[in-house]
Structure formats: C-alpha cells, structure tokens
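Contributing new records

If you add data, match the layout below exactly. Sequence lines come first and carry their own label; structure lines follow with theirs. Keep one chain per record. Anything else will be rejected by the validation script.
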Amino acid sequence: MNKANFVPWKLILFCFLITGLIFNSMTFAGGQAPLSSKSSIKMALKKDPIMKNAAQMLTQGRDIFRFDTFGDEQFWEDALHLHQAIEGQQFGGVGSGLSPAQALELGLKVDVDALPQDIVQALEAGQVDLNDVAVTLALLKLDAVVGVKGTFNGNSLQSVGITCALCHSTVDDSLTHGVGHRLDGWANRDLNVGAIIAFAPTVQPLTDLLKIVNPDITDENVRTVLNSWGPGKFDAELVLDGKASNPQQVTNGVVTATNVPGATLLPNAYGLAGFNQHTWTGDWGSIPYWNAFVAILEMHGVGNFFDPRLDNAAKFPIAAAKKFGHITVDPDEDLVTAKLPPLHLYQLSLPAPQPRAGIDFDEAAAKRGDELFSGKANCTQCHAEPLWTDPGWNLHTPAEMKIDAFQANRAPGDTYKTMNLAGLFVREEGLFMKDENAGRFYHDGRFKTLLDVVDSYNARFDLKLTDSEEKDLVEYLKSL
C-alpha cells in the first residue's frame, strides 16, 4: 500500500476543515465572507478562540492518546512488577528479560519516527541484535515502543506503564514488520495482551479478584485464561464478572464452538465521529465514559469513576464486591478526568483509512454490491450511510441478531452494537498484521472472512443472495 494513504491526518487538515465550517456559518449568519488563504487560516488559528481551543485540545489529545499512562504504573509496576520481567536479571530484574524479538512476537510495535537515524540504518542493515534485552531497554528509553512508557534511573528500568496507543495504534511496517510510522486509531491485531500480562512475575492481584467468584482459582489458572485470549483480543469484563469463557457460541441456532475464550477483538478507534454506543456490547456509555472506564478499571490509572450499575452483584459480582463503580481520589491526584475532553476530541478526529479502487477492491463488483447493500441485502436497515451504523440508538438484541447472548449479557444493556463498516478492507486484507491475524469479524472473531459474514447473514435472514451476489457485496464492503 502507499504509505501516504495510511499516515493519520495532520492537525492542520482538521483545523482547515473546522475553519471552513466556522467561516461558512458566519456567512450564513450575516458575518464575514469565507476565508481560504493560508494566511487567513493561520490568522484564524491565532485569533479565533474556537479555532485556538480546538487546535490546542487536538494536540493535547494526541499526546494523551500516545503517551499518557494516567498513573497506571501503580499496577503494572507496583502490583505486577512487569518492569522486572522486561529488564531481566541481567539488569536488576527477574528472569531472562524481554528481547526485541520476543516483544515483536507479542505484537508490540516500534515507532520508527522515535528512532535516531543511526539506529534506523543499523536496523535496515540487520546490524541490531534483536535477541538482546539491552536493545529493548534502549527502545523504551527512546519512547519508541508504541503504547509502553518506561521510567529509568540510569540504565535501570524503574517502572513501566501503558497508554491508549498500546491497543489502539499500530505501525505501517515501513521499515520492517512491527517497525514503522504510527497509525493511531488502528487496532493492533497482533497484540497479545493476555500473554503480556501473563509475562509478569506475579498475577496475584488478578487471582485475588477472581477468587471472589471462584475461591479455588490459582495463579496458574489465571495465566491459562490470559494466554487463551490470543492476538488482538482483550477481555474487559473479566475483572467485573469473572467469566472466562463462552460455554456455547451459537449462530442462527447452531452451536459453532464451545468454551470460547471470553475476550473480544480490540476495536478500531477511527471513524467513530457521530456514533452513539461504540463498544462491541451495548449501553456502557459514550466514548468519554469508556475512556474513563478503561483508564481506571482496566489500565488501573488514578482517577475518579462512577457507575452504580456495577453494584449489580448478579451481573457484576467482582465489581460489586470491590465497589468499582464508586472509585474516588482527591481531585488534585486525579490523573484522568481532566484529560477526557481532549482525548475524546482526538479520537473523534481519527479518520478511517481509504481503500483504493482496483487495488483494495474490484470497482465494478463494488458498484453491483452497492445496489445489493441498500436493496436485496437490506444492510442499510442498520448500517445507515455514511455512519455505517444506526443513527441514534445503534444497539440490537441477540435475538434480533440470531446469535448467542453471552457477550451481550456481560454489558448493562444486554445488547450488541451495530458495527461501523469503514476500513473493513484493512482486516480483510490483513494490512500491517501477521497473516494469521487477518480477517476475524464480529466481536469474538467467529467469522474468518467478510464472505463468511455475508454468507451467515444470507442464511440467518433468508436474503436469498446468490454466490456471485455475495461476492459483489463483499467488494462493496471493502470499498467503504
């Protein structure tokens, strides 16, 4: 793919768009005429308080998304001692340490723009020892490991924390697989979150939580659960309800798998502007709600969080017992709340990647598929253009979807979200991910390809699509 097609939009493009909207609205209101020159845009950014605020918030939101741990070192360092496993006994930690080769195998990514030119040249020449833990530490010192922040005392790794970018950014592999320019908002389909947590010297804090629902659970059991998730998946509800697996995966009344790990695919963070609910399952809340939820309950940052729905002991036994819906800290110590507005704005600015006709999809077939999408296949009943989800309340019951209710019932609303479709071609083609991690659609990845998805909808809802029509519909989906 052309790398330029996948570099996130520069802030100035966003500001240019907002400038046009603002000045056009001024025209309709009897104000000044629209300004279009670069000097006018710069003047607007400098003098207009709305533009200035938007630009400042956007820049701040990007930094928060990429680099802010919200103080979650208290968990990854103090509780799990993950930093000790990373540096290894050789550098004052425990075990053999984490080499770059191991890190890449776990799906961690490296930002090439954070690397000095001599290191880039050495990597290109194959002169960097990817089995040397010292190289991992050097990359952490450079802030080059996407989504991971290390704090050093000299050459000793003192602490480690994670950021939003760990799960919701990847790289374009411009240098080599796993090393390239950042792609903010792209779910990291290679990232094995469970295996990374299991790599820590202790998982006792997680074991203690899960003992609330299973008194006999051991650290070994917990590591088995974590390692069952696999690449590109995470189980956000495990520490709320303790449910490690779906007993029966059902589609259209047919059991397709049993004892499926409870983790769901990491969602993309791009193309969400205009959305109501945005997580796989419904009625959790808006994007700022989920940011607070994840920052405090999943990343274990320091902040205030309120949701009395988590007091429901029948649905959320662990959360209710630990009062996860009532977390309070002194406002002066809150490292999350003030960051929610700029983080939200940055996430809403992340555009979905654009496919290229003749390369990413067959244009003629896509045109035929477009007719099917809004006609015979009736996809627009839920996936309304151009949001590709339901405008307003974008949730549906498992019965409506004709699938099992396991994951839906782990959420407050017992529903599934209508997924946004923009950028589906990335997963279908397996761009910037290992071949084995390509595809995987629906919340739990039960469908390997888009054709599998369409074929399932054809059967579930008796659409009577022919084989060729199914293929045309897939090409249209890839064109979005």
